[in-house]
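User: Run a structure prediction on this.
Assistant: Running it now.
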Amino acid sequence: MKENFISKFSKLPKYILKLTKKYSNRLIFGQNRSIFKGSGIEFVDIREYVEGDDPRYIDWNVSARMNQLFVRNFQEEREIPIYSIMDLDSSLFFGTKKKTKIELLEELIATIINISTSLSERFGAIISFKDEMAFFRPSKNFSQNYKIINFLHNLIEDFQKNKEKYLGAQSNIEKLLKTINQYIKRTSIIIIFSSFADVKNYENIEKYLRTIKKIKNNEVYVFKLTDISEINPTINGMINIMDPFTKKTRFIELTPKILEEFKKQAIAKINKIEEICKKNNIIFMNFFTNEDMDKKILEFLKKKMFSKK
């Protein structure tokens, strides 16, 4: 069975096959846990109060009924599942340099799966595309998690054959964030991937992220996927453009003034998402399609390291 799996897996791009050993050594993970170490505690039972117990853990409802003090007994969660939350829309099938944004997503997911597997962490995913959601239960099984990569890779291959099919897919980021807690029932590490291409209500984005962060003491990361041309377009003059969401086309003259305003708005969107994350103690990273993954992972590690209290 293992040989058949490896045979199928070998058909994927080479960067996915890389075992990322350099990302699973002591530099990143420490001796026992991964860089995605959680800090949750899990309720076990209720017991009688003993002098010296933390008064914050007193269960006043039970104490009132029993007419004596009782405290809630917790234990540290030793194994916290990792979830990748993927918001797929039409803009992810765009890219002007090394790769498209969905290929960048595939690379990032493969890296996280390799890391999770090397540390025997359970990895799962929730993928939203065109008003549909796919839920992959957390698993330590590499062949099970392969299905997640294969799901993305099949989308990429199908896009090459039928591009029209992938136009008009709006971002579901608000709906996705709103429903995450219905799928994830216990403290988890949650990594959210999105282009945030057509965010309409930043207040809702912040409200949902804050809920995800606090309701189960989750550890949350937000990874924005961006192509460099979305920040600094190199084209100019009269061009015919198509909106990937509405499928409408029109001719427009890209003057220096328009390009500057375009860049200004794009940077403002990134800064807004980052500001929301910072306010809610969520690590934010903006990944470009033309960036070196090795350097980017090191940048992430620095953010993670300095975020520790």
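Residues 256-279 form the longest helix (24 residues).
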